[in-house]
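Protein chain data
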Amino acid sequence: MRIAHFMKARRTMAGLIGSLQAARLSIMFTLALFCLVTTCQVEASEEAWSTQHFNDLKDRWDSLVDVPVTIEGRITSLSKNSMRLARCAMPFVLKEEDARQVSSGKSVVVRGTVRKEKNTDKLLFDVSKVSVVAGDGEKYRIRAGEIRAGEAQPWYELADWAENRATFFADSELKVLADSARMRGLQTEARILNPRTPEALESLARKARELKLDERFAMELQFEGMWLQVTTMIRDGQPDPAALASTVMQISRKFSGAETPLAKWIPVDLQKAEVLNDYAAADDANRKLWHRQLMIAATAAEIQARLLSDGRNGVELAEEWRIRLPERANESQSFLDRYDAFRMARLKTMTREELLAFTKDLEARKKADVATQARRAWMEHRAELSIPQGGAGVVRMAENHRAIYNDEQGTIAILQNGWLKFPEDKTLREAFEGLGYRLSGNRWTRELSTANSPATTSAKAPGELANGMTMEQAKSLLGAPPRRTRLILGSGPIEHWIYGEGANRLILEFKSGPGSSFRLSSFYTDANR
């Protein structure tokens, strides 16, 4: 009996607990619904929902029944007592007099409540009030007009708003306005950019591309950044060749047309800021020419920065200049000039073969005057070294003269003068004999056959000559010499005029000292010397 009462009491208690739990759940649901409705009422009372936001609540439309709601949107269709808002599935029911106040295509704000039809459970929106409001285009212009100069962020916010609306309504015109707002924001950023560095401008160019804005404007930013980088390096007294080389690679990679040589080289001053205005105004074809101008400036600076202070690498850089900058190939000569100066400063250390190669190169480059200077300076130095060496030194001088000037008469004259200074020198004797000469008195002569000997000159008698005469005076007496040779000695140049052949030939010797003209210093015939 007690057990039965106990079980009955337990069942009663379980029922009470179950009832309490159900009541609790009911209260919780009611509170949640109240909060949702209250929230919706608060939101509805503060501002109108956009059609997009109203659509986002579609799964909860049932909970909005009999709740006052305000919605803004665009009318797509309109009749006497109903209308549709763009991109909204719920029909809107309104009074006929309210329908006469609006028209299709207008932007409106409607206030009313959601109701459910009894027979179909279909949801409708009963409009209690409808008002025509400014469209998105007008709102855009109002907001744009409120943005102060120098402010970039408000333009980006306006662009986000316009693009969101344009995407929802598939409005291409509003999308154009959104892009325009972003462009205005980026232009403002570029205008107020401080400090204006190549890195900051490159960053803005990337941002323009990320936002899919006008590519031409992105190129303007990128060009300005690279222009600033190049001109800053050029102004630097000692630019870093490696940094310039890196810049050249960047220009080649980023700017079309940079590697294409110009049909005609027109010098421009890239240091002037007007270059940026000209670039901005240029069409795409002319911008490629500006890209090449920038590449030329950077490449020229890079090659010049690699020139060694003594000019020893001038030949290599001249060739590189001609290949990479064909528009300015003639300017490569400056590198060759530096190389020539380097070689001229080291003439004393050159071998004869090196001198011959150097002078041959100079003459090939139409620098015969420099080649002449090089030969003269080298011979003078060799003469200074050879004189203390006696006959052997004279022979070396003669050999050098013959190899460099290809002048046999001058070579023999050097040997003859050497014999007078060093008579009976064994080395000189061997040199003469090796050339087929024989000693006659104190002069060395070469035996000529009578059949091959030309007649002697019909010059006036040597007695009419006098030491100290100028070349013109001697020429007026004897006429122009059939042959003439010139020697370069340490004491100065010596020139020989030779009239006739054989033992009776007449030889005039002219000497010139520092700062003085040639004067006759001696004259003789082989027979009486």
Notes: The two ends are 175 Å apart (CA to CA). The chain has 19 helices and twelve strands. Residues 1-7, 25-45, 448-461 have pLDDT under 50 and may be disordered.
